[in-house]
Specification:
Layout (H helix, E strand, L loop, with lengths): L23 H9 L18 H13 L4 H13 L3 H14 L4 H13 L3 H14 L4 H13 L3 H13 L5 H13 L3 H14 L5 H12 L3 H14 L4 H13 L3 H14 L4 H10 L2
Helix pairs in contact: 1-11, 2-3, 3-4, 3-5, 4-5, 5-6, 5-7, 6-7, 7-8, 7-9, 8-9, 9-10, 9-11, 10-11, 11-12, 12-13, 13-14, 13-15, 14-15
InterPro entries: TPR-like_helical_dom_sf (IPR011990), TPR_2 (IPR013105), TPR_rpt (IPR019734), Ycf3 (IPR050498)
Protein name: Tetratricopeptide repeat protein
Pfam family, one: TPR_1
């Protein structure tokens, strides 16, 4: 059983200070600031990080302590539980038992990224790719580290490589779409977000991403549909409500906009676009 640790982070979609009469230029400026890192593109099974599951995996390891897969799987569970030092320890042991265990390198890389150690994350993803040049997960993971560091050309190269390998992982298209969006290439971004949706229709993030590119193209109706779908899929993402509010605000429906901004603030009191929008529309 070969496991990846956690479906990689995607992004928060951020909106700037936009009035009721929104120009395309202002929207593009808002979208240029929409890159962030705090929501997952693919749902994580938190049950796999429970103490009960970790205890069961420990029993498996105790019965076969020379099997690197046991350490890899338990390391994944530790990672899901946020117990990063223990996760690193298990991945270290898995790699010590099997130096060519490329999945363990990629899993350890993701934990390093969560710990803020981008250099080690890149090193481990690169080692996984060196061992298995066909491993699309490592290209996607390394590409996201590059993207978050602002190294967009390198990120784009990695996402392109994963796509050339015919990946079925929607993160490759979603993250490439974010780069296109940042560069103002909104039609290409929409195509990539749409592909990501076709691969994982239950993830709200590509709907938010595509919706913002529709806004940049002044296609408010399609944007509204996407933001509403994102909310239907997960009602606990502040960005989705703030994005919906932006459309209401554009339409002059200030009361509805204020309600949606208020919901976003309730979910994330520190989310500035929602706080600013609520201040604009509350009166």
């Amino acid at each position: 059983m070969k496991q990846s640790l956690i479906a990689d982070h995607a992004t928060k979609n951020r909106i700037g200070r936009i009035g009721i009469l929104v120009s395309t230029a202002l929207v593009c400026m808002a979208i240029a600031g929409c890159q962030s890192t705090n929501t997952a593109l693919t749902t994580v099974d938190r049950a796999q990080g429970t103490s009960e599951n970790i205890s069961s995996l420990t029993q498996v390891i105790q019965s076969n302590p020379r099997d690197p897969e046991g350490y890899n799987v338990r390391g994944s569970a530790y990672g899901r539980a946020g117990r990063y030092k223990e996760a690193i320890r298990d991945f270290d042991q898995a790699i010590a038992l099997n130096p060519n265990f490329y999945q363990a390198y990629a899993n350890r890389a993701l934990v390093y990224r969560y710990m803020g150690d981008s250099n080690r994350a890149v090193q481990d993803y690169s080692r996984a790719i060196q061992i298995n040049p066909q491993y699309d997960t490592a290209y996607i993971g390394r590409g996201n580290v590059y993207r978050l560091a602002g190294r967009h050309d390198q990120a784009l190269n990695d996402f392109n490589q994963a796509i050339a390998l015919q990946t079925t992982d929607g993160r490759a298209y979603h993250n490439r779409g974010l780069i296109y969006q940042l560069r103002g290439q909104h039609q290409q971004a929409i195509e990539d977000f749409s592909k990501a949706i076709s691969l994982n229709s239950t993830a709200p993030e590509p709907y938010n991403g595509r919706g913002l590119s529709y806004v940049a193209l002044n296609d408010w109706d399609n944007a509204f549909d996407d933001f509403n779908t994102a909310i239907t899929l997960n009602q606990n993402i502040a960005e989705s409500w703030a994005n919906q509010a932006l459309v209401y605000e554009h339409r002059g429906e200030k009361a509805k906009a204020a309600n949606s901004y208020a919901r976003a603030v309730q979910l994330d009191p520190n989310y500035k676009p929602a706080k600013d929008g609520l201040a604009r529309t509350r009166g």
